[in-house]
Design brief:
CATH architecture of the largest domain: 3-Layer(aba) Sandwich
Number of domains: 3
Structural class: alpha/beta
Shape: globular
Radius of gyration: 22 Å
Helix content: 25-40%
Low-confidence stretches: none
Number of helices: 13
Mean pLDDT: 92
Number of strands: 21
Length: 454
C-alpha cells in the first residue's frame, strides 16, 4: 500500500492522541477522513471543526463503507462491531503503528522512544527544528502549547513519538533514534523487565544502517545493536557525551550550561519546570546539534518552549494558590513531577490528587505508587481509570492507599473532589496527576480557586 493511493480512511478510536495526529495528517492532504470514538471530547470536537466526520456509536449503520483504508487503535476491544464488519468484508484494516511506519519511513525520521519523557522530548525536537526554520513534521503524543496541536506539517524531517505499547515502535525505521528511559510498565504486553529491554533492543535494530542513536546514560547500553553509532546524554553524569552543569532555578526558569563533544554552550534557559525536563532538553538539543542547528537557535527554542498540555501544566497560579496538571501515570513519573513541584514551591503544603490508570498497572506497581506518593503532605486517590481494561477482582485504589506512609490520605469519588479540597484549609498547592480523565475535573477546581480569591 502506498500513501498516495489512499483517498478515504475510517479511523476506529479517532479521538485518541496518536490516532488524531494521523487523522490530521490525512486531512491536511485532502484525504476524506471519518471515524468512530466512544465519547465526545474537546479533541474530537476540534477534529470535527477541521472537517473530520465522527460517529459516537459503533453501530454498523454509522460507519463509512466507501473507504480505501481502515485504521484502528489497539485500545479498542476485539468485539467492536465496526472493526469486525470491516475485517469480515475484506477491507484493508491496519493498526495505527503500521500506518505511522508507512508514512514516516519515507522521510528522514527522528524517533523518540522511552518509558517516560518521550512526548516532551519529541515536542522539544520539533520546536527546535521549527525555530531553526527547518521543514519539519511531527506526530506527537500530546498537544504542544506552542502550536496547539499534536501534528505538525512538514516533509524534510519527521519527528515521531515511538510508542513501546503493543510493540508499536517496531514498525519504525529511524534515521535518528533516542531512548529516554527503559522502565517496568505495560506488563500486560511484556512479561518482565528483561522482555521490555528486548523490545527496546529490537526497536534500535530497526535504525537505518547509516543512522544514529542517542541513549540516556541511565539506560543499559546492552540494548544497543552491535557496532551501532551512538551518543549518550544525561542531566549531570559527566561521563555522558552531552550533559549539563551549573543548574539553578530562578523565577520559575531553569538556567544551565550544556557540555557537548565539541564544547560548552553557556547561558541556556528553559522556562518549563523540572530537572527531568532539563534532561529532555539535553537529548533534544543533542539531536539538533547533530542536524546542524546553531547554538543561537537552540537557545531561542529552549527559552520559548511552552511545553505540552498535561505535562506539568500550570492551570492556576496566584499569590495564594497554585494548581498544576500532569499526565504522570508511572511511579518514576510521579517521583519527577512531585519533586519538581516541591522544588518550585518550597514550604508549601502539597496536596496530590492521583487517578491510577489501568487495573493491570495498579496491580503490578501499587507498592511503588504508594512509595512515590508518600512524600506528599496529603494524598487524594480517585478510583482507577480503566481505559481499555475490564475490572480485576480485588484491584482498586485501596491497593495503593494501604501502603502510603502517611495518615493524611483518602480515596474520594470524582464528584466529591472539590468539596474535599474546600474542606481543607491547607490545600493551597494542588497537583493533579493521571493519564485518565482527571483533567476533566480541572475547570471546576479552577473556578473553586477563583472563588477562594474573592
Amino acid at each position: 500500500m502506498r500513501v498516495q493511493d489512499i483517498h478515504s480512511v475510517f479511523m476506529i478510536g479517532v479521538g485518541g492522541i496518536g490516532m488524531s495526529a494521523l487523522a490530521r495528517y490525512f486531512n491536511t492532504r485532502g484525504v476524506k477522513v471519518s471515524g468512530y470514538d466512544l465519547h465526545e471530547t474537546v479533541l474530537t470536537r476540534d477534529l470535527e471543526k477541521e472537517g473530520i466526520s465522527i460517529t459516537y456509536s459503533d453501530e454498523i449503520k454509522t460507519l463509512n463503507k466507501n473507504v480505501d483504508l481502515v485504521i484502528y487503535t489497539p485500545a479498542i476491544p476485539q468485539t467492536h462491531r465496526q472493526y469486525n464488519f470491516y475485517k469480515e468484508h475484506g477491507y484493508p484494516v491496519k493498526k495505527r503503528a503500521e500506518i505511522l511506519g508507512l508514512i514516516s519511513n519515507h522521510h528522514f525520521s527522528i524517533c523518540i522512544a522511552g518509558a517516560h519523557g518521550k512526548t516532551t522530548t519529541s515536542s522539544l525536537v520539533a520546536h527546535i527544528l521549527k525555530t531553526a526554520g527547518e521543514d519539519v513534521g511531527a506526530f506527537l503524543g500530546g498537544l504542544t502549547v506552542n502550536y496547539h496541536t499534536n501534528y505538525l506539517e512538514g516533509d524534510k524531517y519527521v519527528v515521531v513519538e515511538a510508542d513501546e505499547y503493543d510493540r508499536s515502535f517496531l514498525h519504525l525505521r529511524p534515521n535518528i533514534a533516542l531512548v529516554t528511559s527503559v522502565d517496568t510498565d505495560h506488563l500486560d504486553i511484556y512479561k518482565n523487565f528483561e522482555t521490555i529491554q528486548e523490545g527496546f533492543a529490537d526497536f534500535l535494530k530497526g535504525v537505518k544502517k547509516d543512522g544514529l542513536i542517542f541513549l540516556n546514560k541511565k539506560v543499559d547500553a546492552k540494548i544497543l545493536p552491535p557496532d551501532s553509532i551512538y551518543y549518550t546524554y544525561s542531566l549531570e553524569d559527566t561521563g555522558a557525551d552531552f550533559h549539563v552543569t551549573n543548574v539553578r532555578f530562578e523565577d520559575g526558569a531553569t538556567h544551565f550550561q550544556l557540555h557537548t563533544p565539541k564544547g560548552i554552550i553557556k547561558k541556556l534557559i528553559l522556562n518549563y519546570g523540572g530537572r527531568h525536563n532539563v534532561e529532555n532538553a539535553v537529548g533534544a538539543s543533542a539531536i539538533a546539534l547533530e542536524l546542524g542547528v546553531s547554538e543561537k537557535d537552540i537557545k531561542t527554542a529552549l527559552a520559548t518552549f511552552k511545553g505540552v498540555k498535561r505535562r506539568f501544566q500550570t492551570i492556576y497560579k496566584s499569590d495564594k494558590y497554585v494548581l498544576i496538571d500532569d499526565y504522570a501515570h508511572h511511579p518514576r513519573e510521579l517521583d519527577a513531577v512531585i519533586q519538581t513541584t516541591k522544588n518550585l514551591y518550597p514550604g508549601r503544603h502539597l496536596t496530590v490528587v492521583f487517578q491510577p490508570h489501568l487495573y493491570s498497572r495498579t496491580k503490578d506497581l501499587a507498592t511503588e505508587f504508594a512509595k512515590s506518593l508518600s512524600v506528599s503532605d496529603k494524598v487524594i486517590l480517585l478510583p482507577i481509570y480503566p481505559a481499555r481494561e475490564l475490572p480485576m477482582e480485588g484491584v482498586t485504589s485501596r491497593l495503593i492507599l494501604q501502603d502510603i506512609h502517611s495518615t493524611n490520605k483518602k480515596i474520594v469519588d470524582k464528584n466529591d473532589l472539590v468539596g474535599e479540597l474546600d474542606s481543607d484549609p491547607q490545600a493551597d498547592l494542588v497537583l493533579m496527576v493521571g493519564a485518565g480523565d482527571i483533567n476533566q475535573l480541572l475547570p471546576n477546581i479552577f473556578q473553586w480557586l477563583k472563588s477562594k480569591e474573592i
